[in-house]
Amino acid sequence: DTGVSQDPRHKITKRGQNVTFRCDPISEHNRLYWYRQTLGQGPEFLTYFQNEAQLEKSRLLSDRFSAERPKGSFSTLEIQRTEQGDSAMYLCASSFTGGRYEQFFGPGTRLTVL
Amino acid sequence: DQQVKQNSPSLSVQEGRISILNCDYTNSMFDYFLWYKKYPAEGPTFLISISSIKDKNEDGRFTVFLNKSAKHLSLHIVPSQPGDSAVYFCAASASEGGADGLTFGKGTHLIIQP
Questions:
Q1: How far apart (Å, rounded) are the C-alpha atoms in residues A92 and A32?
Q2: Which residues are CB-contacts of B106 (< 8 A; sequence separation ≥ 6)?
């Protein structure tokens, strides 16, 4: 069990560019979550998947954001036309609904938009 | 509108003494609560949880107390150890076991003094 992994760990981009982040959950976990954390705040829920299906999206997930989990394994989060306000830590978590539900978090991807 | 509130941004406790971290919530639909611990440059790590049907849950040095009528929960760590120095987040969910997206507080930075 290697835990939840995220790639890249850091991303610096210019305003207006598109970025994509990847999350690999714990292998037997069927739920995958995306959160965003800004300085001085707790993680804020963005969206989650059960297997391939995206079951819930927060109002924080504007139309510039899209998340996919095409085969029910890894997931990608894309941000189009980045803005400086998108600068944050993007956290991925996974859980298994067949047993204990607690969410296990990855180390996050820190995005800086210049 | 902060639905989960941690009103103490930081707390300093002497090693060996009890640390008490507090959390208040406003949404009466919340029925599952979790505490996470976070070190710098790492994702949050699950510590302990409690369902609304209980008022106490204990795991080693960590005990969580829930007062539903007051919409208040607390995390007790005893005895406090230097490795407990971290940011602690309170989180809540309206779904069984916290299987859906979690709502986090802003966190409390616990500092254990030698």
A1: 7
A2: A40, A41, A42, B2, B5, B6, B9
- Tens-digit pLDDT profile for residues A90-113: 999 999 877 667 899 999 999 999
Q: Which residue of chain B has the CA closest to A35? A: B101
Quickly state the pLDDT bin for B2 (edges 50, 70, 90).
Answer: confident
Using one digit for the tens of pLDDT, what is the confidence trace for B58-86?
999 999 999 999 999 999 999 999 999 99
Q: Cβ separation of B98 and A93 shorter than 8 Å?
A: no
- Furthest C-alpha separation in chain B: 41
pLDDT digits (tens, 9 = 90+) for B12-25: 999 999 999 999 99
* Contact predicate B11/B111, CB 8 Å: yes
Report d(CA B90, CA B43) in Å as an integer. 14
pLDDT at A99: 65
Q: What is the DSSP string of A30-63?
A: -EEEEEEE-TTS--EEEEEEETTEEEEE-TTS-T
What is the distance in angstroms between the Cα of B40 and the nearest Cα belonging to chain A? 10
